[in-house]
């Protein structure tokens, strides 16, 4: 087991609708190319909140959103990023606390690969 980190927003501290954000800078992405952002995520607990992903060039609308886990397991999220003439220079993971008092929202293993997202 290697050392590592993952981002977690626990449900039992803070207030409803508190936000947590993790911004990752994407450098050297080629224009007019496809990329795939792959990440592990976990939404554990009743009414734990929402996890959203934003791309820098589409700030207002999340490109991915999840608000409940079927169970407490880690799952894999995939987002296609197509670079037009303007390239995306960052991706932001945003968690919003819900009404729940237990559980957590977690993000881990964020990877960017070149080309379209692989099929499962």
From TrEMBL:
Alphabetized SUPFAM superfamilies for the sequence: Concanavalin A-like lectins/glucanases (SSF49899)
Listed name of the protein: EGFL6 protein
Signal sequence, renumbered to the chain: none
Domain of life: Eukaryota
PROSITE patterns: MAM_2 (PS50060)
GO-annotated cellular components: membrane
Span of domain MAM: 1-119
